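sry for the spam today, last one i promise. struct tokens for design, 338 residues
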């Protein structure tokens, strides 16, 4: 803990003390991949995934307790009309997750992934970022700390997703604040805006950027001023996972904005993260490129809820299973190449 008492100091300490990958475990995984009954390299990216799991779990790769964590928040900037849907849909969808009726429920059931939904004071939206900071420092840091609590379930793979009407405007504002550019550079359709309404969304983002312009040098200030509770919680969960040796799969445009905050604090902060898919939301590929990340899937999805991350988890599970359970050439008495 810090001694100065500023809530963000604790977060900065956690970024400073992030563990490095386990190079020996990664090396052992690479070695085993070469012994398994397949031509060298023939499992392509699955082999890289096994090595990545080993490096960040610090041992033989395993996916036995995968967890999809979905964080939900509401946004003051919805007052400016930035979504095709009304804000009450956030709580309604949280109820739908609880009842098992959403897409993410079906994907988790298909691949045997646990699902937990965290509702972050939905009845209290953040402040409207066009005229105030979305959150104060204490709220932002406390919400990041709350996000870290997902690790208490001891997952061995963590998928990060979200639900929050209005949050594609928030994510676009974050990208502009972190990487530069204007509202028009980063705003997309979200749940379905086009034409005039999309131009208005871009203008609202520009208003937020102008209001906070002298404070955008610090990524945590960008987060608290332009972000939201579910974004702060996702950033905390990603950072907490690093400290607990839990590899992370990030979902789409919105979840990646939480990751981008950490990336701007330290580009190594996402080395334990895999980006599950590239969303159809305009700007997502540009954001991934800005962070040097290549998404696993490209399915034209733009739902959120952790759905892209959960689909990618099925591939990560398969990679770990192949790594662990395939026979070696020696065990199966298969002749290796000369
Ligand atoms: O993350 C994405 O790629 C993504 C792209 C488009 C929409 N969404 C979801 O749609 C909601 C935000 O859309 P909007 O139009 O209300 O800003 C929110 O609940 C997100 O989970 C998510
Ligand atoms: C129905 C609906 C479901 C969602 N899931 C994630 N974001 C969403 C937005 C809407 C509008």
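last one done:
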């Amino acid at each position: 803990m810090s001694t100065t008492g500023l809530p963000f100091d604790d977060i900065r300490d956690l970024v400073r003390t992030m563990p490095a990958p386990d190079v020996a475990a990664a090396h052992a995984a690479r070695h085993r991949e070469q012994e398994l009954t397949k031509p060298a390299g023939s499992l392509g990216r699955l082999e890289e995934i096994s090595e990545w799991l080993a490096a960040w779990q610090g041992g033989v790769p395993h996916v036995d307790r995968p967890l999809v964590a979905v964080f939900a928040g509401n946004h003051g900037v919805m007052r400016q009309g930035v979504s095709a849907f009304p804000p009450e849909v956030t709580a309604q969808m949280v109820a739908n997750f609880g009842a098992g009726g959403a897409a993410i429920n079906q994907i988790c059931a298909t691949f045997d992934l646990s699902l937990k939904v965290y509702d972050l004071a939905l009845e209290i939206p953040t402040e409207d970022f066009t005229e105030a900071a979305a959150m104060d420092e204490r709220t932002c840091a406390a919400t990041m700390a709350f996000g870290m609590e997902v690790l208490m379930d001891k997952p061995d793979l963590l998928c990060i997703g979200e639900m929050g009407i209005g949050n594609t405007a928030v994510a676009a504002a974050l990208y502009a604040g972190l990487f530069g550019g204007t509202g028009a550079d980063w705003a997309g359709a979200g749940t379905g805006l086009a034409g005039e309404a999309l131009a208005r969304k871009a203008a609202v983002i520009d208003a937020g950027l102008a209001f906070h312009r002298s404070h955008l040098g610090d990524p945590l200030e960008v987060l608290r001023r332009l972000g939201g509770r579910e974004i702060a919680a996702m950033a905390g969960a990603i950072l907490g996972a690093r400290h607990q040796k839990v590899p992370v799969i990030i979902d789409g445009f919105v979840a990646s904005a939480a990751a981008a905050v950490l990336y701007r604090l330290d580009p190594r902060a996402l080395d334990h993260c895999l980006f599950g898919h590239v969303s159809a939301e305009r700007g997502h590929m540009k954001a991934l490129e800005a962070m040097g990340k290549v998404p696993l899937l490209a399915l034209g999805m733009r739902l959120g809820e952790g759905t892209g991350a959960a689909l990618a988890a099925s591939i990560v599970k398969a990679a770990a299973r192949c790594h662990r359970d395939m026979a070696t050439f020696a065990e199966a008495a298969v002749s290796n190449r000369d």
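Residues 307-325 form the longest helix (19 residues). ok im logging off now
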